[in-house]
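Aggregate trends can hide what the representation actually does to any particular protein. In the encoding step, the backbone of a single protein was reduced to a row of integers, each denoting a local shape. The record that follows shows the chain in one-letter code together with its fold in token form.

***
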Amino acid sequence: MRIWELFQMAMATVRSNPLRTVLTMLGVIIGVSSVITLVSIGQGTSKSIEKQYEGLGTNLLTVNLLGNGRATQLKYEELMEMEGTSGISAIAPTMTRNSTSIKYDRTTQTYNVIGTNDRYLDMQKGEVDNGRFLAAADLDFRNHVAVIGTEVATKFFGKDDPINEEINVNGYMYTIIGVLKSKGSNTSGTSLDSSVIVPLPTMSRDFKLGSIRSTYVEAVNGDAVSKVQQVLERYLYNKFKSTSGYNIFNSSELITARQAASSTLTNQLVAVAAISLLVGGIGIMNIMLVTVSERTREIGIRKSIGAKRRNILLQFLVEATLISGMGGLIGLIVGVGLSLAWPYMNPSQETSLSINVGLYAFLFSALVGVIFGLYPANKASKLKPIDALRYD
């Protein structure tokens, strides 16, 4: 018997009971669609992380100052002294106050306020869309000037030019000197689009903040990062007398660590999704055993008129493979659809579809049909014609 004839017979059986076929395929559909969706989300997350860090460059170090005992903080001037050290091209200490009340005219909103210096924007690979960024003189004279993100500008001024307008930041009036181009969040999750950036000394005085908790240090190039990191570690250890007073994060190491964590999580989720495929395979085997019982007399008649064992084996094996393959195809369509729709449902989450993942998931679903259909098919093929015809 030709494969095409076997396929036609399997299709006829599938069409004879569509509801049971759909219910049988459900486990495979869920498994394949889950694998494709979860892998695309995982790969999208990895690419997003990579893009985020590459936007900052691989020669950037992030220093978190935690303090230790009496040495709880470093002053702005102490941190900037290191800028003259060999291998360091720029330093940008920062202070951040989240959810700060910002008021313009009769509109009041809460945004993050970042106090920093004139090096910060270049290190964050940001750009000014209108006006200018902070200058060294703004810090020296503690000017009340502010650079705002696109979201802040749109919220308060719409399409009007905000330059030279004054906003009330935590009770103090700041003159807007620049608007940034839209960039999104940085590695710490802070969005420049929804931030107000002011001179660090001005913020320190107005907000009565003495602690600098985060500092960005830029090495002259990627090769100098390790040397700069060692210099920073020695300097901070001497200040805090302990390694518990600070953390230094290397951009390259963070990329690797975050990608490894994302990959591990994706693999775990895919393993869970793969269980659905196995459960689907068990469902196929169960239904095929029922089918063999229901069609025992048919098997007896076919064998009595000359059908060989392999014909019966192939008939049920093709039927099981067809059901799992159809489930895999539907799961593939559902998975691709979910992957494409996911960014619209969750704008902060990217997805990345892979042809290979879809192909492997589909082939695995077909393999599940072969594996779990083998036992029922073998059982049917071993039936003796006399016993099968006597079966009631």
Notes: The mean pLDDT is 84. The radius of gyration is 33 Å.
